[in-house]
Amino acid sequence: MGKIPVFRTVGASFERVFGAPVQFWAILMLSSAVFALIPDPGNQLDLTVINARTLSGLGFFIVYNCAAIFFLGAMTTAMLDKARGTRRSIVAALVRGVIVSPPVILLIILVFLAIYAPIAVVGLAAPGGLLLVLLPAVIFGLWLSAVYFVTLPTLVEQRLGFRGIGAASAMTRGNRWRIVGVILIPVLLLIISGLVLLAVVATLVSTIGPDVIWVGLLPTIILGILGNALFVACIVEVYTRLSDDPSDVF
């Protein structure tokens, strides 16, 4: 398997965003509207107290995140269709998103356990050694997350079911840190853009007054939408390069 070129892959991902099909943007807008109306239950979830309210909140949190994966699968389907020169309806892409979700949910659970299980065990047994396990757990979680990034498009195109996790694992072997780099570079760019936008809005509010705070609302929404689109574009670009066995190097 060839080594994917990190910066060229990121650049191609930006091109994919602006060349995405109508179906992709329709699904993205639908998901943005759904999650704008429904607040993230994770912000109110308190696991320090276990009672009926906590369990119901945890159930809602799980459903909320499963819905996010479902929409992500549908968007990946639409963008991968564009990459392969095929086309399907919005409804068909949404149905495909539902079908490919279960293996991805399982993989996310594994990544979550890989990061937090060692931290929780050490934190309970020896709080003083928490820092010793924190960094290795995060590094291993990032390395494992590279498989997650490629699993969705693998499931969409190859229709392997839960075997798609193994296929994605094999496909990413030797490229996992490069895949992490492909994802982290746009994340850093979006964080910097958000901080600049926040500074601009804060300056306007301090000089003109709080009435202009709405000026930053639309750019913030657009930045969030473009961030989601860029994430999907990155995983599709990585997958197409790996599945085509590219020979170009970093």
Structure commentary:
- Helices cover 78% and strands 0% of the residues.
- It has 250 residues and is an all-alpha fold.
- The protein starts with 5 loop residues before the first helix and ends in a 7-residue tail after the last helix.
- Residues 246-250 have low confidence and may be disordered.
Q: H/E element string?
A: HHHHHHHH
Number of strands: 0
Give the termini distance in whole angstroms. Answer: 14 Å
- Average pLDDT, rounded to a whole number, is 79
Instruction: Report the β-strand fraction as a percent range.
Output: under 5%
Spans of 5+ residues with little confidence (pLDDT < 50)?
246-250
| Structural class determined from secondary elements | mainly alpha
- Overall geometry comes to globular
Instruction: Give the count of helical stretches.
Output: 8
Residues in helix, %: over 70%
Radius of gyration: 20 Å
Q: How would a crystallographer describe the biggest sheet?
A: none
